[in-house]
Amino acid sequence: MGGIFTWPPAEKAQVYLEYRVATNDQLTTAQLFVRNQKSIYYKINPDTMAFENHSKDTGNGVEHRVKMGSSERTIGWVQTDLANQNMLSVQKVFKAGQYTTYHVQENPGPIHWQFTNEQKQIAGFSCRKAITKLKGRAYEAWYTSKIPIGNGPWKLHGLPGAIIKAYSTDGFIHFDLIKVGGEKTFPQFLKIQDSQSISCEQYLKYVQEQGKEIAKKVQSKLPRGATFSVHKATVKTLETECH
């Protein structure tokens, strides 16, 4: 497929970073492989339950609490090529009664960082602080020039060194470096033709429609003739905007 970059099999990473990621009330770990301005980032899924439905009789009816997840082991895949300004993220959206895989290809572009004079030691590294806004959230990041890479966790990039700690100022997500290594083999690239291509705007639209999709799924699990109403459907995503 045109525009999708590849690496030869078994190529080694120059730097391997592991992060603890806290987001959306969930704690997990993420891995970042970096080589020559190219990177692969993904999270380890801590909960492979794809659909979970808990019900409770309140006396005024039955209350259902539905939890939707992904059954795959790795989630949140982002592959980036800063030299060629390519970024590909793989997204899961609950649609038509099941999770559907889409990929969003975009130009990472420059992130406009504001550099501060703040410095401190984090995880044994001397770090400097920078701030920015990306995809609808404001971020603060602490980076070190001791690891001279411009690729960072998720879609954060463009700093003069590895990100040791980063977080959105609204508290939605935190990245904390917990391990640094090298000589790791790059994982195999995904088969892009197996997923469907959509724009970032389409992805966010589908995400907001998941409440209705979940309602359809729950209705299909209820006894024949039973009905229910949705009082609240909360969908939280790391991206709230596309720029």
Structurally, how many domains make up the residues?
A: 1
Strand order of the largest sheet: 9-10-11-12-13-1-2-3-6-7-8-14
CATH class: Mainly Beta
Distance between the termini: 25 Å
Q: Please mark out the parts with pLDDT under 50 across 5 or more consecutive residues, or reply none.
A: none
Strand percent estimate? over 45%
Helix content: under 10%
Order of helices and strands: EEEEEEEEEEEEEEHH
CATH topology annotation: outer membrane lipoprotein receptor (LolB), chain A
Q: What general form does the structure show? A: elongated
Radius of gyration: 20 Å
Number of helices: 2
Task: Please state the structural category.
Answer: mainly beta
Describe what is shown at a glance:
The chain has 243 residues and is mainly β.
Notes on the protein architecture:
This protein is mostly beta strands. The chain has one domain: outer membrane lipoprotein receptor (LolB), chain A. The protein has helices spanning 200-208, 210-221; strands spanning 15-23, 26-35, 38-44, 51-57, 62-68, 74-81, 86-95, 98-106, 114-122, 125-134, 137-144, 162-168, 173-181, 196-197. A twelve-stranded mixed β-sheet has the order 9-10-11-12-13-1-2-3-6-7-8-14. Strands 4-5 form a two-stranded antiparallel sheet. The protein is elongated. The model has no long low-confidence stretch (mean pLDDT 81).
